[in-house]
Description:
- It contains 3 helices and 5 strands, in the order H-E-E-E-E-H-E-H.
- The chain is of the alpha+beta class.
- It has one domain (3-104): GMP Synthetase, Chain A, domain 3, CATH 3.30.300.130.
- The strands form 2 sheets. The chain has a 3-stranded mixed beta sheet with strand order 3-4-5. A two-stranded antiparallel ribbon has the order 1-2.
- The protein is globular.
Amino acid sequence: MTEKMAKISSSLEDQVINSLEEVIDPELGVDIVNLGLIYHVSVVDQKCTLSMTLTTMGCPVGNLLADSIRQAVIAVEGITACDIKLVWEPAWDIGRMSRYAKVALGLHE
Length: 109
């Protein structure tokens, strides 16, 4: 990959992450990026692949989140497809949350 292509990919990945900050977990009321649910974002040939987890394995809003995530990703100019890989390792815990999310949820460090 050329340096210019790497910069474009990085820029698209940053744009995807920014767009994902608009996806709010309906149970917690905080976006999925600040909750630490997004583990990896990669964009290759206009296709975004992202690895993410849920706060719990039986999370009842998983399908709703997946639909919202796909919409947010496809809204980024230059992205035409989104593949979501749901992973459970490493397990999510509150340590993955940003300071913003912790404050929003009333948790103190």
